[in-house]
Design brief:
The protein has 7 helices and 26 strands. The chain is of the alpha+beta class and about 375 residues long. Strand 7 and strand 8 form a beta hairpin. Helix 1 runs antiparallel to helix 2. The N and C termini lie far apart (about 75 Å).
């Protein structure tokens, strides 16, 4: 194989694909990139069997071929090369030479045939939406994905489309639920209900553009999903199982509803959390009385009590929450003011805006009588 690639193009492709290189593996071939050059096309691939990324690189193919190269070494080599064109050549034993100006690296490669390419997925079940929309949905739900691997479903994000042009994305971890709604670009003929690993969705989100016009296409099979993002393909295994019936967990009923400025509330909670270490799992308390709420945080190190003016409907209430769960929600909501509904100090509360397409449900912390 003989190819020429600009350093910046090579580095950008490596940064896209490296997310699918496993950090720990007993198989040396999985620590590699697959580099292929055929016709006028150069491709770089990484695959850890759960997540696979294949991306095209702009360059010149002088001789067809392929090789598997250690991902970390190749990444470090390209990063430290001069800012110019890189000439890469392999021999029959996969020994690879990389030349840039007067800098020459020799890298021992492996047989490309030993590398497992990304899953081939049929393109008959497709969902199209704006890249910016999907990026926004992932950013505003991913924090609710469970970090505990004991429940695989909780480590996934559920995508649901009920034979229309509205997609619902849901993440939960047993303490909170994050739901976002968005329109897709083209109607679908059948219901879609799939669970995609949170890790995969997080990496897809990093690859998506903020451009208002660029689109992403999702292709679905029974066991895998493929994201087509420009010149990059991302495949992921799906998580088996029926997702939680979140509709049954959400009630429109409330006994107390607050209308409050979002940023002011977030800042007050953030100040109260100064006295609460994450490992202590102590809550911030909210004493809701008439048109005012007292926000209180206390610990052996000190305490805070801050009063805020709010618009209140319904009953007075003393209720407590993990401050970080509330802050995670408030940080990703764009509205200047929010409606926060509560039923009682032991039942889930929720922040929702159907027009803006979001719902966040948070369980309170039991503080007794």
């Amino acid at each position: 194989m003989k190819i020429t690639i600009e350093k910046q193009e090579f580095m950008e492709a490596i940064n896209r694909a490296v997310k699918a290189v496993p950090t720990k593996t007993t198989m040396p071939i999985m620590e590699c990139f697959l580099l292929e050059a055929y016709g006028n096309e150069i491709k770089l691939t990484a695959n850890d069997f759960e997540l696979g990324i294949e991306t095209k690189i702009c360059g010149m193919v002088l001789e067809n071929g392929s090789v598997a190269l250690n991902a970390k070494l190749l990444s470090d080599i390209i990063r430290k090369m001069p800012e110019n064109s890189i000439y890469l050549e392999t021999d029959g034993k996969w020994n690879t030479t990389l030349t840039c100006e007067k800098c020459v690296f020799h890298l021992n490669g492996q047989d490309a045939a030993a590398f497992t390419p990304i899953q081939i997925i049929a393109k008959d079940r497709a969902i199209t939406l704006k890249q910016k929309t999907l990026k926004d949905m992932i950013k505003k739900t991913i924090f609710s994905v469970s970090k505990n691997d004991k429940s695989k479903l909780m480590t996934s994000i559920n995508i649901l489309i009920n034979n229309d042009q509205c997609m619902r994305m849901t993440a939960l971890d047993g303490h909170r639920i994050a739901i976002r709604y968005a329109d897709i670009s083209t109607p679908i003929k059948e219901k879609v209900n799939v669970n995609i690993p949170g890790k995969s969705m997080d990496e897809v989100g990093k690859l998506l553009s903020e451009d208002e016009e660029e689109e992403v296409i999702l292709y679905l099979e029974d066991t895998h999903v493929l994201f087509q993002i420009g010149q990059t393909l991302v495949t992921s295994r799906l998580v088996d199982g029926d997702y939680y019936r979140v509709d049954q967990m959400i009630s429109p009923d409330w006994s107390t509803k607050l209308t409050v400025e979002r940023v002011a509330l977030a800042n007050a909670i953030d100040r109260a959390a100064l006295f609460i270490r994450t490992e202590d799992k102590k809550p911030v308390k909210f004493d809701i009385r008439d048109a005012e709420v007292s926000i209180m945080g206390d610990s052996p190190f000190g305490s805070l009590k801050e009063e805020m003016d709010v618009k209140k409907e319904g009953k007075n209430m003393l209720i407590a929450f993990n401050p970080y769960y509330l802050l995670d929600c408030l940080k990703v909501i764009d509205d200047e003011s929010i409606e926060w509904c509560m039923t009682n100090p032991k039942a889930p509360s929720y922040i929702r805006n159907d027009e803006a397409g979001y719902l966040y449900l948070i369980l309170p912390v039991n503080i007794g009588k």
